[in-house]
Records
---
Amino acid sequence: MLLMIGTTEIIIIALIILLLFGGSQIPKLMKGIGKGVKSYKDGLNGIDDEEVDDKKKDRKDD
């Protein structure tokens, strides 16, 4: 159901966000969302790096 969002729905959602937050607050909101996404991706990369380090350590122990 969520995949069936069309152009009209996106425009309506954008207008509602504009009304709720105002024009001056939207850049701050987007910046916050961007930082959150970057932090999430960095966290995932950190987990991957730890798994690789653990595997290398296990191989050295053998």
---
Amino acid sequence: MTKLEGWSRRELLRVGGLSIAGTLSPFGAPEGLTCEASHPKKRCIFLMLQGGPSHLDLWDPKPRAGKEVRGPFNPMSTRLPGVAFGELIPGQASIADRLTVIRSMTHKFTNHIAGTYITLTGSTNQQDRDREAHPDDFPGPGAILNHLCPAQTSIPNSVSLPNWLSIPGPSNRMPGQYGGFLGPICNPFLVEGDPNRKDYNPLSLTLGSETGLARLQGRQSLLKQLDQTARWLDRDKIQESSRLYQSAYELVTDGRIRAALRLNDVQEDERDRYGRNRLGQAILLAKRLSQAGVPWVGYNEFNQKWDTHGGLKGRYESIVPPLDQAFTALVSDLERDGTLEDTIVVLAGEFGRTPKINGDAGRDHWPNAYSIVMAGGGLQPGLIYGQTDNQGAEVIQDAVSPGDVLATVWKLMGLDPSTTIHDRLGRPHPVSNGRVRHGLIG
């Protein structure tokens, strides 16, 4: 990392007293690039349950299998005749007729980081092991939007919250979330922190008067002067720093984003409906940012929260109900507000869990077969897509890859998955190597 890269992302705005928690990034393509796609026609909220939720205990129960496969939870009926979910997700069972459940997800990576990378990028060009993010990585969806579709307003193209997914190492950067070979200039904007805190204020700035705006404009002028002192760096880095503070300046002065982030202005019953916890309030915030016009909002669950090698019953009784409450509220609110048809919701982990309960009363990593849940955006509601065998171990009908999911999402958003992007060596890559699954589209 060059001196200005590190400075521009955390310190550049802080010099003038304007502090934004997290990593700053621009909301458009680098100068000189031609936008290869129109502005996204629909929005996406992508909820990443990092760690690997168990398909057998949630969306694909096997009540006729042996006890070691069935696990500790009973199946429950849903709004769809003949379709059962696990007993811990009654909210999703009650709106199953509005969901699109893929029970036939599959890939070959058993490692958390590799599984997360393929889930967020669709790329199979990797080893099945721990590693940190690298500049040659395939870019995440938010970065692709930043590259191809420069924001037409001060509304950012992509936001991640409430944290980056991290991995122990020098940089703590888990691959798949960033700009990769498109460069850090295409990183999503990180809105960091716990939205359930009473003092939550991710922009760390109060602009309540003309005086406040004038002071901010003065700080912007100061930053421009500071930029002039950085001529010892190459021109591209100077342009990057300029776009960074200009984009952040536009964001914090845009009333739509500021209003979306003011959770203290939200009615108590709405906040209660999502759950008064970090996850619930973050998903509420994701909805508000999406409805403010952000095309891609990514929610990152706390690192490996869903990794249950032991004690699955007690762990799931703790973590599943808050997720079910928030996800059900999200889909229901989007439908009530009339925005579900224009918003794709994805709830996914990086893989599933082993068919048999292990000796520690948990389940281990299992990418051979697992489930994800989607809703809205032109998807076919009330659809159970694909099938696993009687132990939930292997896909026996309509196998779907993470790349296929991303290709289908791009198609629904109005972006051709075959659209070409280029890496740092100028080599062409399609936005997705996956196949659009037209059977998922209503």
---
Amino acid sequence: MNTVATIIPHSRPAIDEEDLRATAEVLRSGQIAQGPWVERFERDMASFVGVRGGVAVSSGTAALELALRALDVGAGDEVIMPSYVCPAPWLATQRVGAEARLVDIDLDTFNIDPIAACQAVTKRTRAIIVPHLFGLPADLTALEQIGIPLIEDCAQTLGVTEQGRPIGTVGRLTVCSFYATKLLCAGEGGMVLSNVKGDFERVRSLREYDGTSTLNPSSCNAKLTDLQAALGLSQLGRFPDFHERRQILAEAYGVALSSKAAVCPTAPPGRTHGYYRYVVRLPHLRTNSDGLMRLISALEQQGIHCRKPVFRPLHRYLGQSGFPNSDEADRTALSIPLYPDLTDDEARQILQSLDEVFP
């Protein structure tokens, strides 16, 4: 089979003339470092999520690290997190000197398993990082009952609810990411949000080190620029349209794949789905160690760039075992292109290719 000339990418930012005008305005102003646009972005994001305040930072990983520091997590402490996630939570935990305690996921949702999280608690546990993966909230109701401070990782999930509560308002702290392919694109950047004024003010004091009366070795240069904030604000204003487009595409995918050997994403009772990614499970690949990669290669030959939604579970990097659901997700989960900028014609081409390769 010959490779097609044009590839439908796995992800693509939705940049329009409004975004260009917003960034051009900042460039013309001459004030492109952290300034009034960043302050406005912080206020508007806090209002959008539904919390008291926020602090913009340079990346989602920086947001995780500063959230941990705001809780005084450090050497000798433990932080619980799922194995099936990108390395950012583990890296942030390492940078504050704490130990990551990995737990398995709920295979139906790809999110952290509350029972496994509860069983992992020790007297040294100081926080649980709760990534809401692929647009679907984790079971915050069950996780709250553990009694350990939650850090909600909303890098992939915004604008949805769990038991009627907006995501990002339940944990002690919430972090967001504005990387180029995230729900809101600023090119790069992140934010820490909280209802506890002392928490986000602590993050603010750690975000930069100049102009202070004392030296804090934990402070760093993790500022966002006005240029990025202007793009983020412009994108935030269009979030309802982005969300609606994702819902439309997800519904079309679900209908088209209903007769295939694929487990399509759904929201458990009490939760709504934002479809940051459209991730299906292919159980027939459970015992086929390289079947998923062969399928991804076959789709790329047809012009469709699909991906493993998580490159490698954390426990595999660390040589740990005992994570059967994370292992199964690693072998059977496929992320199909779904984003607001995806055209109807592209969606039809994707579904036609999936129809040919899915049993």
